[in-house]
Amino acid sequence: MIALALPAQDSGTFTPPGIEEMHLPAILPWGAHEGFSKQMLLVILSVVIIATFFLLAARKQQLVPGKLQFAGEMAYGFVRNSIAKDIIGGRDFMKYVPLLFSLFFFILVNNIYGAIPLIQLPSFSHVGGAYVLAGIVYFTWIAIGIKKNGIKYFKLATVPSGVPWYILPIVVPIEIISNFLVRPVTHSLRLFATMLAGHLIVMLAGSGIEFLVMQENVLLKGTSLLVLVGAIAMYMLEALIMALQAYVFTLLTAIYIEGALHADSH
Amino acid sequence: MKQLIVSAATEGAETNPLMPNPWEMGVVLVGFAVLLFIVVKFIVPMFEKTFAERAEAIEGGIAKAEKAQAEASAALEEYKQQLTDARAEANRIREEARAEGAQILADLKAKAAAESARITEQAHAQIESERQAAVVALRSEVGTLATTLAGRIVGESLNDDERSARVVDRFLADLESQNAGAAK
Fold it and tell me: Can you tell me the distance from the alpha carbon of A196 to that of A188, in angstroms, rounded to the nearest whole number?
């Protein structure tokens, strides 16, 4: 693993960095492959950052907000109104604002890490966190559906109304698979895969530049500039995707909750 | 056993990116739970309170402005009403004064007419009484004069008072009846 982390040191052949590079040695190792990793530190740090920022922003509570309070209210209002209220709507959206708000900023901060020099590790490029969040959402919307509609919820969610009986044997399995099996998987993997891919591309570009600069041939050395331009463009795209994925994850959560709340009208 | 599963999972994580690290899952779970707790307990209530207060302040301001507007309209209406009342009052007073003036004038006219009538009446009465007095005086004097004249003309025969009185009376009665006939 250490050997792989330094790919272009000795030979003339380029060894691209792989998935293994995503997992740095632990800061405080315990056991062979375990320990307190950078990713864990960043996750804990994100909680501190989010809590501190919003507690400070909401602390003064003036009717005419200051700059910090205004920024906090903008951010809070975005999740509250543009996601929770618009998607869930009605009277009961307020109940789900805390979950959506926490999800959005937890994912956003953990993603943005990937765009910050030196930190440069989106926490969800490790799949575990994505599984946890998607799992929380999965059990939440199923619980909401059962609480709202009783055990009949599973029938409402899998047997669409207005479908002829002879198509049901095809439709019902599809609905079960898409709603209860595929949904949590895509929900988590979408976040994980985009973060992993973005991180890989930036890392690949970085090691590629390093390899090309090391070359003896001046012209070949010069091509590293092209890679640098490409890397910057990819970096911008990744920054956009980081914010976008936080939004998409939260939006899908709101859509799932809405679907569970109004299962009878779907 | 547990050790085995954990090591298998982490062993897999080296090659398969879809195998999670359970420690990382634990940290994310706990971290997210802590964040959610802080959000539920503090952040959302604080922001919602501010939002509610702001909405109340704005709505209160609007309500206050509407109330002030309504009050101003009511005051304007009242002033207009008072103005109309005052105009009507002035008209009424003017009308009353005119009527009173006319009344006074009429009274004065009537009084003057009555006074003049009274004076005329008095004058008439005086003239009548004077005429009556003159008639009485004239009657006695005319009798005496006529008697004296007749005595002088017919001599001693008419000295007899009784007879002369009778003659005079008859004569006057004739005269009166003649007058009455003429008056008719």
Answer: 12
Using DSSP, how many helices (H) and how many strands (E) does chain A show? 9, 2
**CA triple A134-A135-A139, angle to 5 deg:** 120
d(CA B19, CA A40): 16
Smallest CA–CA distance from A61 into chain B, residue: B50
Look at B35 and A102 and tell me if their CB atoms are within 8 Å. yes
| Better-scored residue on pLDDT, B156 or B27 | B27
Residue from the list B7, B14, B43 with its beta carbon closest to the beta carbon of A54: B43
Q: Do the chains contact at B42 and A55, CB–CB below 8 Å?
A: yes
Confidence of residue B9 (pLDDT cuts 50, 70, 90): very low
Residue of B nearest to A95 (CA): B40
**Min Cα–Cα distance to chain A from B56, Å:** 10
- Read off φ and ψ for residue B151, nearest 5 degrees: -60, -45
At residue A34 the predicted structure's pLDDT band, cuts being 50, 70 and 90, is low
Report d(CA A241, CA A111) in Å as an integer: 9
User: Distances from the Cα of A163 to the Cαs of A160, A166, A169, A251, in angstroms?
Assistant: 6, 8, 11, 28
Closest-CA residue to A205 (of A172, A235, A174): A235
* Count of CA atoms in the C-beta half-sphere (13 A) of A217: 7
Instruction: Check B54 against A51: CB less than 8 A apart.
Output: no
Query: What is the pLDDT, as a whole number, of residue A200?
Result: 86
The reported pTM is: 0.67
